[in-house]
């Protein structure tokens, strides 16, 4: 199946997808800051360049987009009908990189917390952030 957009339109659409400072990530950062936690963001020296790093607690937090990181069983993870093989390769590559980064961080003594985009929707955000707080304290 061919793409429904022209190459220029597809390129423009893809350029608008952010990799940093996403809405879910900002929600978590705002919550942590409000609770008195201080952190660093996107630390390049650590495997996987974690979204949030709490050095005092030796903890890193990854805020994953359900589509881009292949959240199994999630309604936001739908494999596109065009270029399916390419998308599966891309998403499975992201999953493999996530696993490798997580293992490297754990071996280095870091506590790794992963938060999924779907857990930060209106219905579940309070319970997700409360459980995050309990993991940190």
UniProtKB/TrEMBL annotation:
It holds the Pfam family Vsr. Its EC number is 3.1.-.-. CDD domains: Vsr (cd00221). Keywords: DNA damage, DNA repair, Endonuclease, Hydrolase, Nuclease. GO terms for molecular function: endonuclease activity; hydrolase activity. The keyword Hydrolase applies. One of its GO terms (biological process) is mismatch repair. May nick specific sequences that contain T:G mispairs resulting from m5C-deamination. This is Very short patch repair endonuclease. The lineage of its organism: Bacteria, Pseudomonadati, Bacteroidota, Sphingobacteriia, Sphingobacteriales.
């Amino acid at each position: 199946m061919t793409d429904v957009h022209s190459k220029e339109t597809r390129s423009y659409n893809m350029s608008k997808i952010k990799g940093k400072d996403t809405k879910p990530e900002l929600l978590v950062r705002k919550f942590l800051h409000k609770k008195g936690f201080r952190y660093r963001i996107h630390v390049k020296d650590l495997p996987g360049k974690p979204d949030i790093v709490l050095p005092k607690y030796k903890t890193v937090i990854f805020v994953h987009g359900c589509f881009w990181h292949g959240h199994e069983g999630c309604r936001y993870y739908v494999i596109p009908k065009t270029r399916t093989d390419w998308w599966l390769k891309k998403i499975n590559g992201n999953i493999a990189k996530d696993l490798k980064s997580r293992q490297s961080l754990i071996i280095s003594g870091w506590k790794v917390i992963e938060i999924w985009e779907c857990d930060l929707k209106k219905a579940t955000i309070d319970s997700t952030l409360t459980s995050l707080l309990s993991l940190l304290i």
